[in-house]
Amino acid sequence: MSPPDAGETFVRLALAIDQHFPGYVDAYFGPQALSHAARQRGKVPLAELAAQTQELAASVASDESLARRRREWMHGEIAAMQTTLSLLAGEALEILAEVRGLYGVTPAWVEEATFEEAHRALEAVLPGGGPVAERALAFRQRLRVSLERIRPAFDRLHEDLRRRTLAYFPLPHEETCDLACVRDKPWLAYNTYKGCGRSRIDFNLDWPMHLHQLPEILAHEAYPGHHTEMAIKEERLVQGEGWLEQAIVLINSPACLVSEGMAMNALEVIAGPKEVAAYYADLLDAAGLPGQEASRVADFVRAGRPLERVSDNQILLLHGEKVPEDEVVAYGVRYALTPEDEQRKLLRFYQEPLSRSYGFNYTIGRDLVERYLAAAPDRKAAFAALLSEPMTPRQLDLVAEP
Fold it and tell me: Do 215 and 279 form a contact (C-beta atoms < 8 A)?
């Protein structure tokens, strides 16, 4: 009997780590016999897993039969596994070292002047007078919607994003993406990829849903974001190339940073400003609001985008500086211009073991993929490569370097 290949060994190790750290495997759509064996075996000692991971790292590094792009991708993922095993064993890593080990990038403090400049831009966009924080909260409250009320427009948006994605990218036949509602989760929306081109997107009803978020959320989670990426990579890499490691998604790894960066850029890849404004207008009409407000909504989204980086500083404050929770919440209220109840929900996300450093994937990932796409002569072709090939943050950074 021949020994298992690197892909199978990688999958077995990831499934074994998940026994210690439930949720570590975000999705698995490979042979069910491997997941069954992991459950049957239970918790393998962490020291044994660490030794096996080290052996796999050495084997992959020296195996010239593996395609270079495959070897480089696995190198980063295995390094992230080793960091996770160190954390599970009780090693106290400083937050910057944790992020480097898990995602292959190093976050930096964002100067508050960046947020203050965004506040000034919002002052020029938001109606009314008074402090910009009050005006931003009032505007967002006006855009708060019930999915049930606007469901026909929501479904039209979903179908149009799918139509545009099919026009540009090679989605497999018979792929499907179902939508559902849940409660008591630390996130706003989540894609669960089930394999065979099937996904389910859950929307958390405990979070306030705002009309201006809907196009980006659907593009992020479905078309041409996470669902599209997983469906194409399953067909191209797992079924086509036999690369079994692509059939498993680890929640704390460089692949997540690239994937979230892709999803954060997904809407702008397939829809220009006019198309996005048309989405806003349709959603506004469905919510009983003036459709002509669409341009103001677009300006609001664009002016407020730098405020996404407030979360970077909050994670550094919480886990690096050990600042009290109330102060972290107050920082978010002041600079992100969102209410305290939403900030406390975000704090819950930052405190979950699986997601304490995950927020950097959205912000650093967005910037990294945005620079990569900007450096390409054809943005859609560059995005298609991301959908089809295993790429690392370092590889994207090299392409984006001037």
Answer: yes
Residues ≥6 apart with Cβ < 8 Å to 149: 286, 287
H runs (alpha helix) in 204-339: 214-221, 226-233, 254-270, 273-286, 294-304, 310-315, 325-336
Q: Please, where are the H alpha helices in 146-188?
A: 151-168
pLDDT of res. 208: 77
Q: What is the pTM of this model?
A: 0.95
CA angle 372, 67, 259 (to 5 degrees): 35
Centroid of chain to Cα 88:
23
Inter-residue contact 25 to 193 (CB < 8 Å) = no
Tokens linked to 295: 């341009």
Burial of 18 (0-12, 13-18, 19+ CB in 10 A): buried
Mean pLDDT, rounded, of the chain: 94
Residues 57 and 78 sit within 8 Å (Cβ to Cβ)? yes
Whether 324 contacts 317, CB under 8 Å: no
Kindly tell me the burial class for residue 156, based on how many C-beta atoms sit within 10 Å of its own C-beta (0-12, 13-18, 19 or more). middle
**C-beta separation of 282 from 274 below 8 A:** no
Q: Strand 176-182 to strand 189-195: parallel, antiparallel, or no bridges (unpaired)? A: unpaired
Tokens of 327: 């102060």
The position carrying tokens 């290949």 is 5
Residue 3 has pLDDT above 60, yes or no: no
